[in-house]
Amino acid sequence: MKHFRLDLVSILALLFLFIAGCSGEVSIPPTPEGTVETVTQSLAKNEPRAVWDAMPETWQADVKQIIAAYADGIEAEVYDGGWALVGKLANVMANKKSLAMKMLSDPDVARGIPAQGVDVSAAYDAMVTLLKNLSSSDIATHKGLKNLDVGRFLGTTGSKVMASIDDLMVALPDAAQYRDGKADMGRVTVKVISSGEAAAELEITVGEQTKEIAMTKVQNRWVPAEMADEWDENIARIKEGLEKMPRPMPGEEKQHSLALIRSLEEALSSIDKAETKEQFMLAMAGAGANMQLQDLAKLSHMPGLLRPRPRARVVDVYFYDLGTDQLFAAPATELPPIDAPSGAGNGVRVYVYGCGDCSDANRFIAYLEKYTPHAKAAQEKLMNVGPDADPNLALGYDDLMMEGGLLVRAVKGGPWVPMYSDEGMKIASEVLDEDKCKGTRLVPCLPGRDFSTPNSKDKH
Q1: Which of 3, 47, 296, 437 is least enclosed by beta carbons within 10 angstroms?
Q2: Which residues of the chain, if any, have pLDDT below 50?
């Protein structure tokens, strides 16, 4: 249990140095022991405003200068867009909690999540509340950050954030230890070993931990002596780092950042449209794919990092011959439509699955997929990008996909529709229907490969 108890000195150091996060001003006693007791007990009650009010005025001024310098060095449009995205994420998470819980309860999904002993629903709610509080606070806009009243911020958002962290921590397996630690902070005892006009030695006990700490007086405020000795050096180091920030943000970096925000906003919109667990999982997978595409876009800004390089092995996948309604194998690097046995352009990508295994009796076709000519050309350029490529080449590719560049169709016929449309998501998500395999595990099928067991090998 000792491992999880909260160390008072560490808490004070972190909160003094990294002010990030109750309503009225806290009255700080004029004695060193009174200062420590008030600050620690306030933190136990989720009132971080006490930390700010216990700081010397010059230290408060240093923190304000750092925040202002940081605000001056960042791109307002990117900053505001990023926080707007956080707010949208919180709203989508709140709207789709029931679908998210269904997805997390899926055995294939839960297998990779270390959730033993976790109250997933409570942790989820705590994260939503935390994100909502931050995205609606003063720091969620560039103007608000630049003119931030730190004391007021700590007096409003700070306590809400600490309460959300409490809710999150008590949903985890070590909830009892966390509760004990917070309770110990509220029962802190401070013994004065020695005290003078500007220096004091204290013995502080929090739960089972006892530590001696030297305090010093700075502008009528008592602070840890070690922190006072290092304050100017730490502030200078932070300011030096801020001065090295590129100002303004390079145009290509700004363009990529805005494209990433726009891509994630569109992905969240797709997730918000989901009405079933299957559509939700598909939309989540699409969001992950968009992230990978944006990583590729970012690399395209760095000469020499994206160049054709040989792969150790190209896996074959199934394609569907629209002329004969037959499957055939081709490399996964081929972009549909491709030439098929029945003729040019008749081959489209097909997703094949099996219930338990990929035998003929258990195998079925999920849906067909192809690119529009414009999207296929864009993808081919990305796959062959070299060190001298246009740095803007990849930025719009994810937009092209979201706007209808990737098409799907049911194998039984019907129109080709955009993958990320409502109808497209319905077609692609039908394979995830829980009744499809009647309790048997759904496995992907590829030519010559067997995924019916976790450690299966290629069939050759």
Answers
A1: 3
A2: 1-23, 296-312, 385-399, 451-460
